[in-house]
Amino acid sequence: MIYPIQIRAARSLLGMGQEELAELAAISVVTVKRIEAAGSEIKGSAQTYARMKLALEKAGIIFINQNDDEGPGVRLKKPVG
Q1: Which of 6, 24, 69, 76 has the smallest count of CB within 10 Å of its CB?
Q2: How many domains does the chain have?
């Protein structure tokens, strides 16, 4: 599972707006805004998160899971430059 903060960070790395993510994930912009506003709390259906995750991965994002020592994160699939 990914966190709303990862979604916002991924969009930022890609320079992607909420509208573009909504279109790529086939969900409403209102849904993107609601989920991102949740911060670190997971709100919404697993299917919606899966659609957002897949859309961001296709756009070039890798999601990094949290562990006991470090929090969740994101990174670009390809080097910058």
Answers
A1: 69
A2: 1
Q: How many whole angstroms separate alpha carbon 9 and alpha carbon 6? A: 5
- H or E segment at 32? helix 29-37
What's the domain range around 15?
4-76
Task: Give a yes or no: residue 20 inside a domain.
Answer: yes
Residue 1: strand, helix, or coil: coil
Q: How far apart are the first and last CA of the chain?
A: 30
Domain of 46, CATH number, reads 1.10.260.40
Query: Is residue 31 in some structural domain?
Result: yes
Q: Is residue 81 part of a domain?
A: no
Compute CA distances 20 → 7, 27, 59, 67, whole Å.
13, 10, 11, 30
Has this prediction a pTM greater than 0.85? yes
Strand ranges in the chain using DSSP code E only, listed in sequence order: 61-64, 73-76
